[in-house]
Amino acid sequence: MAEVRARVEFKVGVGSKIDAEILSFKGLKTDKEHVAVIFKQADQSQDIPLVRMHSECLTGDVFHSSRCDCGEQLDETVERMGESGGIILYLRQEGRGIGLYNKIDAYRLQSQGMNTYEANNHLGFGDDLRDFSEAAQMLLALGVGKIRLVTNNPKKVKELKEHGIEIAEVVNTLAHIKEGNESYLKAKVSHGKHLLKF
């Protein structure tokens, strides 16, 4: 079982105006440095907190790439949790688990006409190599066993349930369509079965 290692207050969001705490963990099964960002002490004050598992996306989260909607989903969630409270599990699983450099190679293939899944497959990877067992570990370490999950991805729901987390509700994010990401979003719906409404 993972243990919480440190809890630090800071401000987050587009305007760095939303109060939150960041937590690090020890005892996870891999050496990945996942963190939890907690709003309004939701791990202690809410029976069924709002939770988002957000996999790291340097290109989307930091640079707001035109190729995906990751940064917009993260911003939407931070704003929502700034109002209602909640927990973001920020998971170091870049590019659906293939890593940053491989994701950049996949971008090159997408520029040649492949969708996001085809590009990953062409590079020798599965559709989605992410493992959400450590997210469940993190939640249990926080004393959270029942959640309202912010996601459009049925894989996340399935894996959390398999690792002992009860999902009381699934809360979808918006479809953040912008120039350059519509085919990416359509592939997530048709291939990944994501619950996105255009």
From TrEMBL:
Binding positions (Zn(2+)): 57, 68, 70
Q: Where is the active site?
A: 128, 130
Enzyme kind, highest EC tier: hydrolase
Q: Record's CDD domains?
A: GTP_cyclohydro2
Binding of GTP occurs at 52-56, 73, 94-96, 116, 151, 156
User: How is the cofactor bound, as the UniProt entry phrases it?
Assistant: Binds 1 zinc ion per subunit.
The biological processes this protein is annotated with in GO are: riboflavin biosynthetic process
E.C. numbers: 3.5.4.25
Key words, A-Z: GTP-binding, Hydrolase, Metal-binding, Nucleotide-binding, Riboflavin biosynthesis, Zinc
Q: Which reaction does it catalyse?
A: GTP + 4 H2O = 2,5-diamino-6-hydroxy-4-(5-phosphoribosylamino)-pyrimidine + formate + 2 phosphate + 3 H(+)
GTP cyclohydrolase II domain: from which residue to which, for each copy? Answer: 19-171
| Pathway(s) | Cofactor biosynthesis; riboflavin biosynthesis; 5-amino-6-(D-ribitylamino)uracil from GTP: step 1/4
Instruction: Identify the cofactor(s).
Output: Zn(2+)
Molecular function terms from GO: GTP binding; GTP cyclohydrolase II activity; zinc ion binding
Its GO CC terms are:
cytosol
Q: HAMAP family, per this entry?
A: RibA
**PANTHER family for this protein:** 3,4-DIHYDROXY-2-BUTANONE 4-PHOSPHATE SYNTHASE (PTHR21327:SF18), GTP CYCLOHYDROLASE II-RELATED (PTHR21327)
NCBIfam families reported for this sequence: PRK00393.1
Family membership, please give it. Belongs to the GTP cyclohydrolase II family. In the N-terminal section; belongs to the DHBP synthase family.
Q: What does this protein do?
A: Catalyzes the conversion of GTP to 2,5-diamino-6-ribosylamino-4(3H)-pyrimidinone 5'-phosphate (DARP), formate and pyrophosphate.
Its recorded name reads GTP cyclohydrolase-2
Q: Which gene encodes it?
A: ribA
